[in-house]
Amino acid sequence: MVSTANLTIYLLEAILSHLTLSCALLLATLAAIRWYIRDSYKVDGFSQKHVFITGCDSGFGNLLARQLDRKGFQVMAACLTEKGAADLSTAASPRLKTFMLNVTDSASIRRAVEFVSKEVGERGLWGLVNNAGRSVPIGPTDWMQLEDFTKVLDVNLIGVIEVTLQFLPLLKKAHGRVVNTASILGRLSLTGGGYCLSKWGVEAFSDSLRRDMQHFGIKVSIIEPGFFKTGVTSLDLIEADQRRLWSCLPQDVKDSYGDTYLDDYVKAQEFSMGILCSPDISKVTRCMEHALTARFPRTRYGAGWDAKFFWIPLSYLPSFVSDLVINALLPLPKDKRHV
Ligand SMILES: NC(=O)c1ccc[n+]([C@@H]2O[C@H](COP(=O)([O-])OP(=O)(O)OC[C@H]3O[C@@H](n4cnc5c(N)ncnc54)[C@H](OP(=O)(O)O)[C@@H]3O)[C@@H](O)[C@H]2O)c1
């Protein structure tokens, strides 16, 4: 028989555990509400703030430049081509200024700094968005030569580092922001070539920059987009380059892959990119805009559902899981079938 004392203890324990669970839920809800409110605070005076964006001919950079221009920011949009600059000027207000910049050319970067210094004066530079990038060549590692790696690293990593270093004095003046465009490929190496390496490098560079520059009031955010339809994911460009790489391979390497490998690879790539690439690039530029306008910008922004719910979680799992997923997306070389 259950005594009255035992029953009382049992009831008290049940009430206590119920209370503990309710308190934990309440605290979690309050923390989420606090985070949400804090995340929505904005800085003011957009019209007094200068933002410099690289790679504005197309894609994220182009949309971000027009988006910030509409918000009243003083946008300085760096383009690689005259045509890109002319088209952007036509699509934006007279406030937006375009400038020619090749991020692999130190002299071009120095000219950009001079131009920006004159524009911003004593105010300094509020925002630097390192966005310029290229993807090709991408493909199996043994299809590459050393220069295939360096031509991507020069734009996507060394370009980001040099542009940032040159602009730091102007950013310090304004206690400004650096927004670096990495990728989910900076967390998971899905393909050979320089692209993934460059984005892992951008992640590491941005982490050290954030820690070192916080003492000077500079905030650093990293954008990690999933897959979006833009120039860097253009299948025509990627496939044409893969055919070039294949045509340069020695016959024994081609034999180890098999006659049909290139076509199978291209087909598998077309299939997965067709499913993965989102046409809504505003998901990325909204993250960039938040990093420039929020009073408390986030350190990392996963942009796109695939990044948030698939690639970033996958990057925390053991490597054999990501190996399985990536292997399932690509065909097997002929020699592998005999191993
Ligand atoms: N699209 C995606 O799925 C995705 C995902 C993750 C990260 N990203 C990153 O997002 C950034 C923007 O790319 P996007 O997707 O918007 O593709 P995009 O339309 O090709 O934009 C890249 C821009 O960078 C410019 N550029 C290339 N080389 C340059 C150089 N040496 N100096 C200055 N500018 C140069 C390109 O100019 P041209 O057009 O004249 O070549 C282009 O305007 C890149 O860093 C890319 O790696 C893209």
UniProtKB/TrEMBL annotation:
Domain of life: Eukaryota
GO biological process: one example: steroid metabolic process
Keywords recorded for this protein, A-Z: Membrane, Oxidoreductase, Transmembrane, Transmembrane helix
Transmembrane domains' residue ranges: 15-37
Presence of the UniProt keyword Lipoprotein in the record: no
GO molecular function per UniProt: oxidoreductase activity
Xref: PANTHER family: RETINOL DEHYDROGENASE 7, SHORT-CHAIN DEHYDROGENASE/REDUCTASE FAMILY 9C
Annotated family: Belongs to the short-chain dehydrogenases/reductases (SDR) family.
Record protein name field: Retinol dehydrogenase 1
Taxonomic placement: Eukaryota, Metazoa, Chordata, Craniata, Vertebrata
